[in-house]
């Protein structure tokens, strides 16, 4: 499978989260064959190790529990194995800017109780033929889409330039210290520090003059035709 795509792709650090050892293996083998570094983990997930690995993409497996077979999902926490990991992901600012790929087993995208943003949904095992190239594509697309903002990191002693993450004007990320900033309105924001601490922040005080990139002008790197 992995040998078929001929285009040149850089090696990626990929985190695989899945509670089924066999599925984990089925996902891991084609990725390592394609030359990527993989950190595979089952619950309880060692989130500090995940952060230290500096993932460029996270693949989270979710599956329907035996109890929920043949009926709709009633309680995601009980009916969906792997749901907890998706919830936990949100607590880690350092990885909020990383693309998320969800691999569903016995559960389709329309019934997915999504607690977090994700970038690609694949169904196991049907989509495994295209798993590696699609994962590479989404990772590189999102990396390209990331833009430098006109704001600096509110973390005292950091002050590095924030980048936009997925929701361009509402979610900023510090690539240096791992802080995340959720913009509430024109001036108010919530800063979540690298240790998960939360504080109010004022966008007016974080603005860097002049802004590197206008909020409303699409940057050249965003051009989909490139
Ligand atoms: Zn910072």
Count of distinct structural domains: 2
- Structural class, please? alpha/beta
Supply the CATH architecture of the largest domain. 3-Layer(aba) Sandwich
Low-pLDDT residue intervals, each spanning 5 or more residues:
1-6, 211-226
Q: What distance separates the N and C termini?
A: 27 Å
Task: Enumerate the distinct ligands.
Answer: zinc ion
What is the element string, with H for helices and E for strands? EHEHEHEHEEHEEEEEEH
Compute the average pLDDT: 82
CATH topology of the largest domain: Rossmann fold
Q: Which descriptor suits the 3D outline?
A: globular
Superfamily (CATH H level) name of the largest domain: Response regulator
- Tally of strands: 12
Approximately what portion of the residues adopt beta-strand conformation?
Answer: 15-25%
Rg, Cα atoms, Å: 19 Å
Mind telling me the CATH class of the largest domain?
Alpha Beta
List keywords for this structure.
226 residues; alpha/beta; Rossmann fold; 2 domains; 6-stranded antiparallel beta sheet; 22% helix; globular; binds zinc ion
Describe it for me?
There is one protein chain. With 226 residues, the chain is an alpha/beta fold. It has 2 domains: 3-144, Response regulator (Rossmann fold); 147-206, no CATH class. It is built from 6 helices and 12 strands. It has helices at 21-33, 47-52, 76-79, 83-89, 131-145, 203-206; strands at 13-17, 37-41, 57-64, 80-81, 100-105, 120-123, 148-152, 161-164, 171-173, 180-183, 188-192, 198-202. Strands 1, 2, 3, 4, 5 and 6 form a 6-stranded mixed beta sheet that branches. It has a 6-stranded antiparallel beta sheet with strand order 7-8-9-10-11-12. It starts with 12 loop residues before the first strand and ends in a 20-residue tail after the last helix. Residues 1-6 and 211-226 have low confidence and may be disordered. It binds zinc ion. Zinc ion is lined by residues 153, 155, 158, 160, 174, 176-177, 179. Zinc ion (ZN) binds next to loops.
């Amino acid at each position: 499978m992995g040998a078929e795509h001929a285009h040149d792709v850089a090696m990626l650090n990929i985190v695989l989260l899945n509670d089924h050892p066999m599925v984990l293996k089925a996902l891991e083998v084609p990725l390592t064959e394609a030359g990527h570094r993989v950190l595979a983990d089952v619950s309880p997930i060692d989130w500090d190790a995940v952060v230290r690995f500096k993932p460029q993409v996270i693949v989270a497996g979710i599956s329907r529990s035996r109890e929920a077979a043949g009926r709709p999902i009633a309680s995601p926490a009980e009916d969906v194995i792997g749901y907890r990991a998706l919830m936990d992901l949100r607590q880690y600012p350092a990885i909020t800017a990383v693309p998320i790929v969800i691999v569903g087993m016995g559960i389709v995208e329309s019934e997915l109780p999504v607690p977090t943003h994700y970038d690609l949904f694949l169904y196991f095992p049907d989509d495994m033929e295209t798993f590696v190239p699609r994962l590479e594509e989404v990772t590189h697309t999102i990396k390209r889409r990331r833009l430098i903002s006109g704001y600096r990191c509110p973390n005292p002693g950091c002050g590095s330039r924030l980048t936009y993450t997925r929701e361009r004007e509402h979610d900023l990320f510090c690539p240096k210290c791992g802080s995340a900033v959720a913009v509430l309105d024109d001036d108010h924001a919530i800063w979540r520090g690298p240790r998960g601490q939360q504080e109010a922040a004022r966008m007016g005080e974080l603005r860097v003059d002049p802004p590197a990139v206008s909020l409303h002008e699409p940057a050249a790197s965003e051009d989909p035709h490139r």
